[in-house]
Amino acid sequence: MGLDIYIETQPKNDLNNDTSRWQVGYFRKFNALVSWVENNVGMVENCELVELNREHLLKLKADLDCLNKENCSEIMPTMEGFFFGSQEYDDFYWRDVDELRELTEQLIENHDFDNNRLTFCAWW
Question: Distance between CA 11 and CA 39 in Å, rounded?
């Protein structure tokens, strides 16, 4: 068990069909991302979809671009939780930050927000 995070997309004209949703990003035990979503988008509940729009991704990109060892505990803090993983700002944290930065840039450039819904879902 643990914290699994899925970033998925789905056509807006097919929202009632779970099989039309496909994964565009995945993170394991990156609890700081859950913290960021709760602080900037909305409450995160186990296995509940949280919709992300273009403005959310632009804010996330801006936060990731200025993130450093001195401000990470304020901008993208880790959080406690059963099965949520490490709360350290170690190499694993920064590896996840780099992967999230790359994914965020790709989604800002390529995701069709007009026709597709982008969602965040955490499972623990």
Answer: 27
pLDDT above 90 for 85 = no
For residue 17 the two structure tokens come to: 């069909």
What are the pLDDT digits (tens) for 54-76? Answer: 999 999 999 999 999 999 999 99
What does the pLDDT look like over 29-49, one tens digit per residue?
999 999 999 999 999 999 999
- Residue 113 is encoded by which pair of tokens? 């927000």
CB 36 within 8 A of CB 122: no
Q: What's the rounded Cα separation, in Å, for the pair 98 and 79?
A: 19
Q: What is the pLDDT of residue 39?
A: 97
**How would you write 36-73 as a 3-class SS string?**
HHHHHCCCCCCCCCEEECHHHHHHHHHHHHHCCCCCHH
Q: What is residue 4's DSSP assignment?
A: E
CB 99, CB 92: distance < 8 Å: no
Contacts of 49 (CB under 8 A, 6+ apart): 8, 119, 120, 121
